[in-house]
Amino acid sequence: MDVAIQETAYDTEVLSGVLSSSREFLRPLRWEGPDGGVNRRELKKFRETVGFSSHILRMLRDGVGEDTVFLECSCGKSYLSFALNRLLKELEGVECTFYGVDISGPLVEKCRRIAAGLGYDNMSFTHGRTLEFDDHGDKKIDVVIALHACDKATDEAIARGIRYDARYIMVVPCCQNQLRGQIKRTQPLKDLTDFGLLRYRFADLLTETLRAQVLKGAGYHVEFHEMVSPMVTPKNLVITA
Ligand SMILES: C[S@@+](CC[C@H](N)C(=O)[O-])C[C@H]1O[C@@H](n2cnc3c(N)ncnc32)[C@H](O)[C@@H]1O
After folding, report:
1. How many Å lie between the centroid of ligand 1 and the Cα of residue 151?
2. Cα dihedral angle (154, 172, 52, 218), rounded to 10 degrees?
3. Could you tell me the domains of the chain?
4. Measuring from atom 9 of ligand 1, which residue has the nearest CA?
5. What angle do CA 204, 208, 209 make, to 5 degrees?
6. Fewest 10 Å CB contacts: which of 103, 151, 181, 192?
7. From ligand 1's centre to the CA of 19, what distance in Å?
8. Can you tell me which atom of ligand 1 is nearest the CA of 130?
9. Atom of ligand 1 minimally distant from the CA of 75
């Protein structure tokens, strides 16, 4: 049975408390500090993870249940999925299914070891490109997420989400080089892109706009949000479809 999401339960302070209250959870993610709290050197990633988790849980306001299936693209060490899994178990008593995919074999192996150590047998990880992910059997993917998937890997996550007709696609893009190199000096908006830093920002804006329009074209309602303060990271824009 689906549980209704209580918005106030997902304040970042509440989520930080839940995630940092267990050394057994923090240790394998290398988030554990000497005093038992979160390691200061890992605070940035911890805050990004908490901020994005808070956003995702608030968005799932029409409910999550045992049959909800997440796919984290370019998962890396899968901080986001490990955090969401713990939060959903602790706060809602719900065990969803989590898939992760990453092109790095060693990182995927690490995720498998961490999941086994934590006893999270509702999580599995695939070594490969996001665009080629196909390990979900007959399960319907509900929520596609990606945190700082490099460059075009964010587009692969969006493409997978559309292909699966996912209920939600939520991505926080990272660096993007695809368009910047294509903005030539001869284009009509030359004056706008004459300066290096502005050309960089313009390429970001154009990339995010095109992503949003692709999602709209596929029938999604699209919103932009900030997952954390830009003081934590300037890469804080969430595309929510
Ligand atoms: C900046 S890291 C972010 C990792 C993780 N999401 C996080 O927030 O810690 C980007 C990750 O994308 C992975 N990656 C890059 N291109 C990929 C692709 N086409 N398919 C799957 N993973 C990819 C890299 O191996 C790396 O783990």
Report:
1. 9
2. -70
3. 65-240 (3.40.50.150)
4. 76
5. 115
6. 181
7. 23
8. 20
9. 6
- Residue 44 structure tokens: 């940035």
Which atom of ligand 1 lies closest to the CA of 48? 8
Per-residue pLDDT of the chain (241 residues; tens, 9 = 90+): 454 545 567 899 999 999 999 999 999 999 999 888 899 999 999 999 999 999 999 999 778 888 999 999 999 999 999 999 999 999 999 999 999 999 999 999 999 999 999 999 999 999 999 999 999 999 999 999 999 999 899 999 999 999 999 999 999 999 877 787 787 767 777 787 888 888 888 889 999 999 999 999 999 999 999 999 999 998 999 999 9
Which tokens belong to 68? 């909800």
Encoded tokens for 52: 């994005």
CA distance 206 to 191: 16
Which residue puts its alpha carbon closest to atom 8 of ligand 1?
A: 147
Q: What are φ and ψ of residue 70, in 5° steps? A: -105, 145
Separation of CA 80 and ligand 1 centre (Å): 12
How far apart CA 177 and CA 238 sit, in angstroms, is 18
pTM above 0.85, yes or no: yes
Whole-number Å distance, alpha carbon 2 to ligand 1 midpoint, is 31
